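User:
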Amino acid sequence: MKTWYRYGICIALGLLGGGAVAVQQVRGGLNDGLVSNGPWETGKSFGTVDASTLTRAKVALSGLLALPAKEAMYFTAQKDSDGRALDGRCNYVVRGGKLDGRWWSVTLYEGEGWLVKNAAKRWSVPASAVAVDEAGGWSFIVSPSAQSGTWLPTGSVPKFDLTLRLYHPSTTTIQRPEAAQLPTIERKECA
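Assistant: Predicted structure:
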């Protein structure tokens, strides 16, 4: 075999192998510098100049479109407060109190940042949609079937995640997201 064929084969194999490793790394999820807080996870470098190239690629792929941390922080939950994977065939109650920011919303996604198709055409619960009690507490339901009150439909997908966006968070929350008071996610009955 001619030498240039060997070089060509080695280069092609190197490009294919390197490309496969790069795709696997970028699709590996947002796990670069993750901080956990109950069922919620966030990265301290999302939307900052400190974010690595790998983190920036993962953020771009997930469609997070991360703003600088002083503008917004993003917390994602793939599990309930007991550590079980979120299942679209189950009912959940998301409970919280005053969050340390100007405004917030929770959005339900299926897989790689896709909104869940549902007949109600609801994909997010904003702070303005929940009733706040005298103690400052609020709650809403995440369920495959229509519910009274504030409700976020799952579309009965087998797996989903919730993203909490906290706009204009306090300096304390930015510096110590693991200590922030975030909502709980309680699993109820499953279909």
